C-alpha cells in the first residue's frame, strides 16, 4: 500500500480547517504545509482562530511532516525555512509559500506553492506546478487540499472528499 503525502497551505490559524486536513492522514502518510499555517502576523479571525493548538498538534504528528513559513507566519512563533526540499517516494518536491522568488527548479519534479488561495494543478515542460488552495479561505478553485499517492496527484474538496482534479506524474516526460 502506498503512503500518501497530504499537501495544504493557507490555513491561517483556522483550527477546524487544520483538523479537517489532518483527519486525512493515515499511519505512514506525510504532511506538507506550504505556509500561512498560523497567521500570527495579522491573525485572530474569530473564535476558531487557534494557532497555539495547531502548533502543538503539528509538533505531535507521528508521521513525516514539512512546513515552510508564509508571509503571515511570524518566525518567532514557529520557525520555518522559506523553501524546503521533500524527497517522497522517488520524487523531488519543492515546498514554498509563493511570496518570494523560487530557487532553480531544474532538480524538482513537483513545485508546491500556496499564497494565492487558488487551487491549481498543471504541468509545464515535464514539471508539475501545484497550489493546493486553502481549506480555510479559498479564492476561486476548490476548498480543500492535495494528495500525492504513488504517481497520482489529486486536488480534493472538503468536506465532501470529491476529487476535483488529478494528474498522473508517470504520464509526464521531462524535456
Give the CA-based shape.
globular
**Structural class label:** mainly beta
Beta content = 25-35%
Write the CATH homologous superfamily: Metallo-dependent phosphatases
Helix content class: under 10%
Q: From the 3D coordinates, which CATH architecture would you assign? A: 4-Layer Sandwich
Number of helices: 2
Assign the CATH class: Alpha Beta
Uncertain regions: pLDDT < 50 for 5+ in a row?
Answer: none
Number of domain units = 1
In N-to-C order, the SSE pattern is: EHEHEEEEEEEEE
Mean pLDDT: 92
Task: Report the major sheet.
Answer: 6 strands, mixed
CATH topology name, in short, is Purple Acid Phosphatase, chain A, domain 2
Distance between the termini: 31 Å
> Count the strands?
11
Question: What Rg, in angstroms, do the CA atoms define?
Answer: 15 Å
User: Strand order within the widest sheet?
Assistant: 3-2-1-9-10-11
Question: Secondary-structure blueprint of this entry?
Answer:
Layout lengths: L3 E5 L6 H8 L7 E4 L17 H9 L5 E3 L15 E6 L2 E6 L13 E3 L7 E5 L2 E5 L12 E6 L2 E6 L5 E6 L7
Parallel strand pairs: 1-2, 2-3, 5-6, 6-8
Antiparallel strand pairs: 1-9, 4-5, 7-8, 9-10, 10-11
Offer a few descriptive terms.
31% strand, 5-stranded mixed beta sheet, 6-stranded mixed beta sheet, mainly beta, 11 strands, Purple Acid Phosphatase, chain A, domain 2
What report would you give on this structure?
The chain has helices spanning 15-22, 51-59; strands spanning 4-8, 30-33, 65-67, 83-88, 91-96, 110-112, 120-124, 127-131, 144-149, 152-157, 163-168. With 175 residues, it is mainly beta. The strands form two sheets. A six-stranded mixed beta sheet has the order 3-2-1-9-10-11, with no helix packed on it. Strands 4-5-6-8-7 form a five-stranded mixed beta sheet, with no helix packed on it.
Amino acid at each position: 500500500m502506498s503512503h500518501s503525502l497530504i499537501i495544504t497551505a493557507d490555513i491561517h490559524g483556522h483550527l477546524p480547517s487544520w483538523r479537517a486536513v489532518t483527519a486525512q492522514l493515515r499511519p505512514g502518510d506525510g504532511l506538507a504545509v506550504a505556509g500561512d499555517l498560523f497567521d500570527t502576523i495579522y491573525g485572530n479571525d474569530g473564535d476558531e482562530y487557534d494557532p497555539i493548538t495547531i502548533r502543538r498538534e503539528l509538533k505531535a504528528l507521528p508521521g513525516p511532516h514539512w512546513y515552510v513559513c508564509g508571509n503571515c507566519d511570524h518566525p518567532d512563533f514557529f520557525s520555518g525555512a522559506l523553501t524546503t526540499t521533500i524527497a517522497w517516494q522517488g520524487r523531488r518536491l519543492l515546498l514554498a509559500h509563493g511570496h518570494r522568488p523560487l530557487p532553480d527548479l531544474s532538480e524538482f519534479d513537483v513545485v508546491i506553492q500556496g499564497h494565492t488561495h487558488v487551487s491549481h494543478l498543471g504541468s509545464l515542460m515535464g514539471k508539475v506546478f501545484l497550489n493546493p488552495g486553502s481549506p480555510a479561505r479559498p479564492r476561486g478553485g476548490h476548498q480543500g487540499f492535495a494528495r500525492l499517492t504513488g504517481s497520482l496527484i489529486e486536488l480534493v474538496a472538503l468536506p465532501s472528499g470529491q476529487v476535483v482534479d488529478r494528474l498522473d506524474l508517470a504520464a509526464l516526460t521531462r524535456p
